[in-house]
Design goal:
InterPro entries: DUF3243 (IPR021637), Uncharacterised_YmfJ (IPR024702), YmfJ/YflH_sf (IPR038292). This is DUF3243 domain-containing protein. It comes from Alkalibacillus salilacus. By secondary structure, the protein is mostly helical. The chain has one domain: Cytochrome Bc1 Complex, Chain D, domain 2. It has 4 helices and no strands. Helix 2 crosses helix 3 and helix 2 crosses helix 4. The longest helix has 18 residues. The protein is globular and about 35 Å long.
Length: 86
């Protein structure tokens, strides 16, 4: 099963990657920009695997560039307390 098949697993995966980046000293601005790029890729290149991803894709597709940055920043906040990092 892919991490994209289950939204909770996807959030854990993203949380782990976020914590790895933070542990390596990546600044918040860079993290937010990477989240934007991931959002753009997922919205345009990857089929939604569940209802949550479909909703995020639909929001992304109707959003302005500024709103897309906001969505990406909010997803970073959503996964901040996810994953296995303590």
């Amino acid at each position: 099963m892919s991490v994209l098949d289950n939204f909770e697993q996807w959030k854990d995966f993203l949380g782990d990657r976020l914590h790895q980046a933070q542990d390596q000293g990546v600044n918040q601005e860079t993290i937010n920009e990477m989240a934007y790029q991931v959002g753009e890729h997922l919205a345009t290149k990857v089929d939604a695997k569940n209802n949550e991803e479909a909703m995020l894709r639909d929001l992304w597709n109707v959003a302005s560039d500024e709103e897309r940055h906001t969505i990406a920043n909010m997803m970073v906040k959503v996964v901040q307390n996810e994953g296995t990092h303590e």
